[in-house]
Amino acid sequence: MTDLTHFDPLGNAVMVDVSAKAPTERVAVAAGSVLMAADTMALIQARGVKKGDVLAVAQLAGIMGAKRTPDLIPLCHPLALSSVKVELQLDPARNAVDIQATCKLTGQTGVEMEALTAVSVAALTVYDMVKAVDKSMRITDIRLLHKSGGKSGTYQAV
Amino acid sequence: MTDLTHFDPLGNAVMVDVSAKAPTERVAVAAGSVLMAADTMALIQARGVKKGDVLAVAQLAGIMGAKRTPDLIPLCHPLALSSVKVELQLDPARNAVDIQATCKLTGQTGVEMEALTAVSVAALTVYDMVKAVDKSMRITDIRLLHKSGGKSGTYQAV
Amino acid sequence: MTDLTHFDPLGNAVMVDVSAKAPTERVAVAAGSVLMAADTMALIQARGVKKGDVLAVAQLAGIMGAKRTPDLIPLCHPLALSSVKVELQLDPARNAVDIQATCKLTGQTGVEMEALTAVSVAALTVYDMVKAVDKSMRITDIRLLHKSGGKSGTYQAV
Amino acid sequence: MTDLTHFDPLGNAVMVDVSAKAPTERVAVAAGSVLMAADTMALIQARGVKKGDVLAVAQLAGIMGAKRTPDLIPLCHPLALSSVKVELQLDPARNAVDIQATCKLTGQTGVEMEALTAVSVAALTVYDMVKAVDKSMRITDIRLLHKSGGKSGTYQAV
Amino acid sequence: MTDLTHFDPLGNAVMVDVSAKAPTERVAVAAGSVLMAADTMALIQARGVKKGDVLAVAQLAGIMGAKRTPDLIPLCHPLALSSVKVELQLDPARNAVDIQATCKLTGQTGVEMEALTAVSVAALTVYDMVKAVDKSMRITDIRLLHKSGGKSGTYQAV
Amino acid sequence: MTDLTHFDPLGNAVMVDVSAKAPTERVAVAAGSVLMAADTMALIQARGVKKGDVLAVAQLAGIMGAKRTPDLIPLCHPLALSSVKVELQLDPARNAVDIQATCKLTGQTGVEMEALTAVSVAALTVYDMVKAVDKSMRITDIRLLHKSGGKSGTYQAV
């Protein structure tokens, strides 16, 4: 049976040793959604056309969150991201805020966790800004859409 | 129409002024799940009986993540949590890791975001530790189960 | 001659012992400006009417910066701000972005440094976002406008 | 009209994608001043000859502040500075503390923000250490003196 | 047999729930030493009389380190220290730098870890600044000297 | 007499300029111990066989602590560690928890401080988790065992 790379044979958690890996161009794309009541969606939409936009605040929080990944995820390597892009879109048909994040690095380790963390922090920020009117929102379907670079090659979600 | 508390009339984002609020006992409980392939679930279960447990690492990351909430969520107040509890359980029937976090504070502001952040960081850590064998996991259904304390009173998810 | 409170008689830097002080309501207001070329000002003005506003990003950075004050200023106390408000305005007559920050706390120590740090970080963020078109901007006149609360009483800039 | 590099066409704030840039040697030099009352200047001068020097504390804070730049400035890349140098000098003729910071990196992005942040944090620290005797100090003229390296070439303040 | 307060009956690590404790005045004093070669000690002594003092840098790092305790120690509560004092002294007879830290808080939890962390970070900083000339230094005897306040009362090292 | 690399001729603390150094493979190994009462040792041993292991929590804290080194040690360079490994072992004969940390980097500066910080944070975490039953523990003998890479070559503790 395959075993987990983050433990050594004695059961110690380890930051995986990537020192022998060649630096390659790494890209990861992650996505997720915040589901809410119809009235809440309408409120966010109404703000979106003027200054003081919920999505703009969440978008910035997502970018900053990507940078905090090694502080949050115990076994993630500290790394120097070369690009972070976060986009939020309203889907009124589903009463959803859809979030997508893309991270890039030329380095020895992938950036999946950075993209997933960006999505998570953006989603939490949407929740925070709207929670006074809707506590029943759900953050859902946070997943990896795509990764490329590195020894394990390209992954594309089906 | 109700408006959002995190913007002033000019559209400036604001950290809500809680200085006039009386400190009260605040509790918040949040939950969420990581869904995965059956083989991945089996792998985590196998580890759970020995040292080097995925859930133990994620559980600790969740506690530490709760403390980083004001660094991550732009308009959250910095605050001195009096308790953080994070629990992870396997549900093999759903191939799910279920996460629940409880935060407490005696203070002027609620701790919903701290509980939701604890769940999110624990979920991301599960993903990180298992991603070498399963990139198609989903972090899902992050939501508030319960809050009490403060002017808005008690909320209980249905 | 008056001496400095941040050194003990041996010359050791100290975080001033505030444990015997009664908690009082503290407020501090600080301000500052970023001066730039007329063309740069025009560019920021043009953005201000649509999504993707320089001032909105800087405004959020200022709020988050206030929370990082004890990490940055060696002898500042960690504290639980109850309010942070940051406002940026364009003054086209002076080709200036004017920044004002207000912080509040009920506690044993003042929040002047938090307000000044919020202004500084907002100003640095304006610089960052516009530096590709204007490297000659100046951050200037960062100062305390007002403080109240605490043993030293109220200060009002003339 | 030139547009801002930190927004995409939809108005999303972006961390600029530098992944296609070649790493080059980057240097940035920034400066700024803290202006104060003559008595305050005399007090700092008096300390400078013994242990417990205001300038030494501010100088160290500036170096540490440079390292926190990506945590503070939302769209700054995380990066691995190869050198930070901060110098503070008294100019009694102007009752000024003059601060200069030099940062270096071999990388894909400039270090102007790191140098400007070092100056800002050093200046805020001077303010903090002396504010008990002089609240009317001003942090002023924070500016870029020089940068070299990268596609945009060398900038020299006039 | 006594059991550990930081685990629940299921073996989950927990941040101990202090929400029912009354805030009391807490004090903790910790100490430790850095042992080195006689030549290294002489070098530090020589610097101590002029600007650029190893002990002054380490002393400041210790104060800042105390503030980072909840970021470093997984189950420590975030808290608002009311005083941090760090002192370093040379003992040439033992070729030792002796470090002592005192932390205070009015709160629901003790500050032993903050005092011990301050000593550790100050000791590490001494090592860092002198390691180019002496890699064989030892950081040793980090211990709690005294604590008071809280339910467990006063502890005094023998 | 040799002088210290972390001060310039004027006595300013400096982050050493490594920009002219070639990146090489760097390794550092550090160690240290926590000494305790026999009953405390027995308590930790009893936990080690089930979930909720003191050593597992401390081990993870050590890895995360290594990543915080540039935040803690004022003149340390920020850097992108390629590997961190922390191991804790009980030595019942000495009533000691022995800690060893290994850090790696391909870069321009050594990782001794990262390894020493990992050991220190792991030791502090052991103290934190057991302090309710034993306040007289000592953290001791934190030292560099080995370093290789860089201009100063290999160091091996005797």
TrEMBL record, chains A, B, C, D, E, F:
**Example of a GO MF term:** cyclic pyranopterin monophosphate synthase activity
Q: Which NCBIfam families match?
A: moaC (TIGR00581), PRK09364.1 (NF006870)
- Kindly report, in one word, the top-level EC class recorded for this enzyme: lyase
Q: What is its EC number?
A: 4.6.1.17
Molybdopterin cofactor biosynthesis C (MoaC) domain sequence ranges: 15-150
Quaternary assembly: Homohexamer; trimer of dimers.
Annotated family: Belongs to the MoaC family.
One BP annotation, GO: Mo-molybdopterin cofactor biosynthetic process
Tell me, in a sentence or two, what this protein's role is: Catalyzes the conversion of (8S)-3',8-cyclo-7,8-dihydroguanosine 5'-triphosphate to cyclic pyranopterin monophosphate (cPMP).
Q: In which pathway does it act?
A: Cofactor biosynthesis; molybdopterin biosynthesis
The organism that produces this protein has a lineage beginning with: Bacteria, Pseudomonadati, Pseudomonadota, Alphaproteobacteria, Rhodospirillales
Q: Which reaction does it catalyse?
A: (8S)-3',8-cyclo-7,8-dihydroguanosine 5'-triphosphate = cyclic pyranopterin phosphate + diphosphate
Q: Name its species.
A: Magnetospirillum gryphiswaldense (strain DSM 6361 / JCM 21280 / NBRC 15271 / MSR-1)
Instruction: Name it.
Output: Cyclic pyranopterin monophosphate synthase
